[in-house]
Amino acid sequence: MRDKVLLFINGDAPKSLPNPESYDLIACTDGAFHYLKRMGFALDKLDFISGDFDSHSGSDEDMYQDKFILTLDQDKTDFHKALEIILEKGFSVVDVFGGSGGEQDHFLGNLTVAYAFKDRMKIKFYDEFSEYYFIPNDFTLKGVKNKMISLYPFPSVNNITTKGLNWPLTNGSLSITSRIGTRNFAIEDEVSVEYESGDVLFFVGINEIEYPSIY
C-alpha cells in the first residue's frame, strides 16, 4: 500500500484547509468540489473528482473534466464510492474533511461507511471540533491532556478499560442502547484504551477545555 490520501466530502466545509503537500493523493466528491472552489483551494492539485455529478454546473468545472470519475451506483454513497477508488489506487490511509455537518443522516451514513472499511483502511475524520476514527483493541494516544475524549460504542463494546481519563472504565461495557462514553476528558498526557470485543469510535477534541463537563 502507498501513503496518505486527503479526501474532501460534501458535509460542512472545513474552517481552514489542510496543507496539500502532506499528502500523496488528493481527491474530492463532486459536491465538495464547489466549496473547495469557493475557498480558493488549488484545484489543479486534485487527482480525481468522483460522483454522479448531479450538482455539476458546467462552465469552469469543465476544465477539470480529465479528473472526473463518474460513479452512478445509487446503492452506495459518494463517500463509499470514493473510498473504493482510493483502495483500487493502492492507498489505505485517508484523512477526511467534510464528513460532519449538513444533514445529520449524511453524517451517520459517513460513519457507517467508515465502519464498513475499517479493516481495510485507516480513516480519520476532521472537523472544527475534533478528530474521530475507529480504534483497535489496544490503543494509546499521547499529547491529549485536558482535551475532550469521547468513546462511542458502535454499537457496543465489551470489557473496556481506559487509563488517563477523568472518568475511567475498568472491564466495563458500553452500548448505544444503554451507556455510552461521551464527553470525558484526559487528565494525563497519555490515554490508553483496551477492549475485548465490539467497536469503538474515538473522538479527541482539537482544543484543550477549561471547564471539563460531562453529559
Automatic annotation (TrEMBL):
Gene from which this protein is expressed: thiN
EC number of this enzyme: 2.7.6.2
Biological process, per Gene Ontology: thiamine diphosphate biosynthetic process; thiamine metabolic process
Transmembrane feature ranges: none
GO molecular function, one term: thiamine diphosphokinase activity
InterPro entries attached to this UniProt entry: Thi_PPkinase, Thiamin_PyroPKinase_B1-bd, TPK, TPK_B1-bd_sf, TPK_catalytic, TPK_catalytic_sf
Name of the top EC class for this enzyme: transferase
Protein name (database record): Thiamine diphosphokinase
